[in-house]
Write a structure and sequence with these properties.
61 residues, transmembrane helix, 1 helix, membrane, transmembrane
Length: 61
């Protein structure tokens, strides 16, 4: 049985493309996780600022 070189080349290209797509999906997921973590940190900081402002308002009254 004879296998053409073009078949081997196309198979290798498909494997490489699948690997590239998998790597891109993983990087995208990591970026989304980083974005979510940054937003959580910002929410915590904003809550701290809001609480200090509320405490200052209560002390002024």
């Amino acid at each position: 049985m004879q296998i053409d070189l073009s078949t081997i080349a196309v198979t290798i290209m498909n494997i490489v493309l699948y690997l590239v797509i998998l790597i891109l999906i993983c990087k995208g997921i990591k970026k989304i996780e980083n974005f979510i973590n940054r937003n959580k940190e910002m929410d915590k900081k904003i809550d701290i600022i809001m609480n200090t402002l509320k405490n200052k308002e209560k002390n002024l009254d």
